[in-house]
Amino acid sequence: MSSRTSGVPMYVWVAAALAVASCGFMLVSLVTLRAVRRERALLAATRAVVATSGAPGDPEYAGAGLMADESVAAGAMLGTILEADVTALNARLSAARTGVADLGAKAELDRVADKLREATTEAHLWRTVPEGREHLTAATGALASAGRHLSRASALAIGRPAPADAPPCLFDPAHGPATREVEWAPHPSTAPRRIPVCEADHARVASGRAAAVRSVIGPGGQQPYYDTPGYGDWLLGYFTGYDPYQVARLLDGTVLGRQIPGRITSRGRHAADTGGDVGTVHFA
C-alpha cells in the first residue's frame, strides 16, 4: 500500500483522524460529566426536601410535604422531563414526515406540529411561573393530543384506518397512546390490575421482559415516576379527558396513587368517591 493518498502523506491522515477522535471523546466526556453533576444536584435537593417533609406513609406526606417536593420538582426535575418529552416527540414527527404521500396523514402531522407548539408555549409559561401548575398540565395534555394525532398519521400513511382515541401508556405516557392492556402490579404487595400500555410495552411484558417504565430522579435515586413525589400534575395532563380518580386507582399502592386525589382537590375539582375496584381506563 502506498504511504501517500492523493499526494498527502499517510501519517497526516492518521494524525487528523486521531485528532477528530480525541475531540469527539472529550465532547462526549464533557456532556456526560455535566449530566452526572446535574443529576447529583437534583438528587441532593430532593433528598433535602424529603428529609424535612416526611416519607411515604406519613400523614403529612400527601399534604404540606408534597408541596415542598413539588417546588423542587417544578424548579428542576419536571423542567428536564418536559424538555425531554417535547424533544422526543419532535424527533418522531420529523421521522414520520419522511416520504409521506397520504393527504390525511399529512393533515394529522400538521396537527401534531400545532400541538407541539402549544406544549412548548405552555411549558415556557410554567417555567416562568412554576406555581401555575395548570400550565404544566396543559403542556402534557397537548403532548398527549400530539401523540394521538401522530398515531393516526402513522396508520393513514400505510393505508390503515385511523385508530380511536386512547389513553396514554401508563408505563410511560410519552410512549404515546395505548393499544393494549396488561395485568400489572406496581409492587409485589399490591393487587394486580389491568392497565393501558403501548404496543412495545405489551410485547415486552408478553415475552416476560420488563416494561420500559419511565425512570426519574427521586428520593431513592433513579426510580419509577409513579413512586416519585411531585409528578401528579405532569401525569394528569397526559390523561386529560379521562377520569383522574380512575388514574389514581390504576396507580393504587404507589406514591402518586396516594397523592393524585389531593392534587385533583387542589386544582378545584369536586371530590369524588375514590374507593371501589381498580378498574380499567377504557379505550373510548
Q: Could you explain the architecture of this structure?
A:
- The chain has 284 residues and is mainly alpha-helical.
- Helices cover 57% and strands 8% of the residues.
- It contains 8 helices and 6 strands.
- It has helices at residues 10-52, 64-97, 103-128, 133-157, 199-206, 232-238, 244-250, 255-266, and strands at residues 4-5, 8-9, 180-184, 193-197, 215-218, 221-224.
- It has a two-stranded antiparallel sheet. A two-stranded antiparallel sheet has the order 3-4. A two-stranded antiparallel sheet has the order 5-6.
- Helix 1 packs antiparallel against helix 2, helix 2 (64-97) packs parallel to helix 4 and helix 4 (133-157) runs parallel beside helix 6 (232-238).
SSE arrangement, N to C: EEHHHHEEHEEHHH
Uncertain spans? 1-6, 23-71, 269-284
Approximate helicity band: 55-70%
Q: Write down how many β-strands occur, each being a DSSP E stretch of 2 or more residues.
A: 6
* Portion in strands: 5-15%
Radius of gyration: 22 Å
Q: In a nutshell, what does this entry contain?
A:
Helix content is 57%, strand content 8%. It is mostly helical.
Task: Offer a few descriptive terms.
57% helix, mainly alpha, 284 residues, 6 strands, two-stranded antiparallel sheet, two-stranded antiparallel ribbon, 8 helices
Secondary structure elements and pairings:
Layout: E1 4-5, E2 8-9, H1 10-52, H2 64-97, H3 103-128, H4 133-157, E3 180-184, E4 193-197, H5 199-206, E5 215-218, E6 221-224, H6 232-238, H7 244-250, H8 255-266
Antiparallel strand pairs: 1-2, 3-4, 5-6
